């Protein structure tokens, strides 16, 4: 996985600037990353990396850093 | 054809209403993924439909098992990047008077009839959302809308399906996904034929049209709800029951 692909998913799904997509960015810490946007983000990640995430992983994906480690489980490396 | 180039999954599609739905969706041009627990039975149905010139693929899993559903969807996305229609049809009927219902009956009925709808919809809605369109059709029952003596468990499991339908319709509309339910009355399947003769006659007599319905008649309404003919219809429960009173 290229970092750009992950960042692109966050930028497009959440409608935010690339600069704020950092490891520490957390779910629900900004208005743009609410539950509805989270499901849009999941759809974007699944589409981009051609994977099907577990429901538990969707719930656990609470930060950009978490997203990277969860995607790694799907043999998508960050 | 109403469903040309559409991709559908039908659960419990190896026989009865599910098979009739799968066949009718095929006849309308859809590629239909046939679900069942038994890989051999699923393969036989896929083969039968393919031989008739239709497009069909296997979707083998136990819909009452969340992990099994997840694995089936993993295989599915390797074969298809899109999903247009999900028909949650799989179900069981295991009736008893309330004082004689076992816990096992309660758990298995709700797991197969109700939890499966949630498990399947979780994954299907995510794939449908990628294209901002889709139709989920849940097979409920007249017992779920009206209730019936001796069917508290089955009726409860199907009433829950209606609650799921109406809630998902509201949640998924923003993603372009419609969610509706069909509530069959008394339909000619192995399930209907499994009841005692006197109950069978009583049921037919309660139908205003004075006959049992056919699986194809359920499939017709499912096809309508799956197609663009119903593109502004969501959150509805359509009874297909010949005017049955219960």
How does this structure look, described?
The complex is a heterodimer of chains A (78) and B (246). Chain A is mostly helical. Helix content of chain A is 55%, strand content 0%. Chain A has helices at 3-14, 35-49, 55-60, 64-73. The N and C termini of chain A lie close together (5 Å). The model of chain A has no long low-confidence stretch (mean pLDDT 91). Chain B has 246 residues and is α/β, with parallel strands linked by helices. Chain B contains nine helices and seven strands; from the N terminus they run βαβαβαβαβααβαααβ. Chain B has helices spanning 16-27, 39-51, 66-79, 103-130, 142-146, 152-172, 190-193, 197-205, 215-226, and strands at residues 7-10, 31-36, 55-60, 85-88, 134-139, 177-184, 237-240. In chain B, strands 3-2-1-4-5-6-7 form a seven-stranded parallel beta sheet, sandwiched between helices. In chain B, α1 packs across α9 (215-226) and α3 packs parallel to α4. In chain B, 46% of the residues are buried. The A-B interface holds A 36, 39-40, 42-43, 46-47, 50, 52, 54-55 and B 66, 70, 73-74, 77, 122-123, 126, 129-130, 174.
Features:
heterodimer, A: 78 residues, mainly alpha, 0% strand, globular, B: 246 residues, alpha/beta, seven-stranded parallel β-sheet, 9 helices, 7 strands
Strand order of the largest sheet of chain B: 3-2-1-4-5-6-7
Mean pLDDT of chain B: 96
**What is the first-to-last residue Cα distance of chain B?**
36 Å
Along the chain, the helix and strand elements of chain B come as EHEHEHEHEHHEHHHE
* Percent of sequence in beta strands of chain B: 15-25%
The overall pLDDT average of chain A reads: 91
The largest pleated sheet of chain A is described as: none
Helix count from the secondary structure assignment of chain B: 9
In what range is the share of β-strand residues of chain A?
A: under 5%
Outline the low-pLDDT stretches of chain A.
Answer: none
**Morphology of chain B:** globular
Radius of gyration of chain A: 11 Å
The chain-level structural class of chain A is mainly alpha
Dominant shape of chain A: globular
Termini gap of chain A: 5 Å
Structural class of the helix and strand makeup of chain B? alpha/beta
pLDDT < 50 runs, ≥5 residues of chain B? none
């Amino acid at each position: 996985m290229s970092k750009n692909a992950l960042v692109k998913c966050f930028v497009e799904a959440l409608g935010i600037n690339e600069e704020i997509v950092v490891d520490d960015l957390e779910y629900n810490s900004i208005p743009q990353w609410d539950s509805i946007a989270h499901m849009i983000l999941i759809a974007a990640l699944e589409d981009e990396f051609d994977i099907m995430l577990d429901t538990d992983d969707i719930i656990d994906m609470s930060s950009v850093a978490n997203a990277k480690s969860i995607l790694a489980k799907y043999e998508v490396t960050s | 054809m109403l469903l040309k180039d559409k991709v559908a999954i039908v659960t419990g599609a190896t026989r009865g209403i599910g098979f009739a739905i799968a066949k009718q969706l095929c006849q309308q041009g859809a590629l239909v993924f046939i679900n069942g627990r038994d890989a051999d039975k699923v393969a036989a149905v896929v083969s039968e439909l393919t031989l008739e010139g239709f497009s069909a693929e296997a979707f083998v899993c136990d819909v009452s098992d969340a992990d099994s559903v997840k694995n089936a969807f993993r295989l599915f996305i390797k074969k298809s990047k899109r999903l247009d229609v999900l028909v949650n049809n799989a179900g069981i009927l295991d009736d008893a008077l309330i004082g004689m219902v076992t816990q096992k009956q309660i758990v298995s009925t709700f797991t197969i009839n109700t939890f499966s709808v949630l498990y399947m919809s979780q994954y299907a809605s995510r794939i449908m959302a990628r294209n901002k369109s889709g139709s989920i059709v849940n097979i409920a029952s007249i017992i779920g809308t009206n209730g019936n003596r001796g069917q508290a468990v089955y009726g409860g499991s199907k009433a829950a399906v209606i609650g799921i339908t109406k809630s998902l319709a509201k949640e998924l509309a923003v993603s372009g996904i419609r969610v509706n339910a069909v509530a069959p009355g008394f339909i000619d399947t192995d399930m209907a034929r499994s009841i005692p003769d006197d109950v069978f006659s009583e049921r037919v007599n309660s139908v205003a049209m004075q006959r049992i319905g056919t699986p194809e008649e359920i499939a017709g309404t499912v096809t309508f709800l799956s197609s663009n003919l119903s593109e502004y219809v969501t959150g509805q429960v359509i009874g297909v029951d010949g005017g049955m009173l219960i």
